[in-house]
Amino acid sequence: MILLLSISIVIILISNIMMFLTFILSKKSFMDREKNSPFECGFDPKSSARIPFSLHFFLITVIFLIFDVEIALIFPMIYSFNLVNILTMMKISFFFLLMLLIGLYHEWNQNMLNWTN
């Protein structure tokens, strides 16, 4: 009983020492105005808020959301393969891929897939 208590106290002390060391070693020593300020759609939060909005940042967000939602919708579709017949699954998959291709075409049409802008 005493041996178990002493082992647990030693484990707690070692874990606390390791957490304290990682806290000390992970401190950033270089504080920069750009790193400490929030990044909101390409705007500098310390300057004028009346500058025109960049459509490039908006469309990058749309690309992210399209593929993020795609992954969130693919997982339940995989599970439902056993629950519905093949014709219904093909219709659902075709509609899903059509929506993704329409989104991709819109991004391509707006020249947002060109990353040099």
From TrEMBL:
It catalyses: a ubiquinone + NADH + 5 H(+)(in) = a ubiquinol + NAD(+) + 4 H(+)(out). Its EC number is 7.1.1.2. It comes from the Eukaryota. Gene3D superfamilies: NADH:ubiquinone/plastoquinone oxidoreductase, chain 3. GO terms for cellular component: mitochondrial membrane; NADH dehydrogenase complex. Signal peptide: none annotated. It is found in: Membrane; Mitochondrion membrane. Keywords: Electron transport, Membrane, Mitochondrion, NAD, Respiratory chain, Translocase, Transmembrane, Transmembrane helix, Transport, Ubiquinone. The keyword Mitochondrion applies. The chain crosses the membrane at residues 6-25, 55-78, 84-105. GO terms for molecular function: NADH dehydrogenase (ubiquinone) activity. It is an enzyme of class 7 (translocase). It is a multi-pass membrane protein. Belongs to the complex I subunit 3 family. Core subunit of the mitochondrial membrane respiratory chain NADH dehydrogenase (Complex I) which catalyzes electron transfer from NADH through the respiratory chain, using ubiquinone as an electron acceptor. Essential for the catalytic activity of complex I. This is NADH-ubiquinone oxidoreductase chain 3. It comes from Papilio bianor.
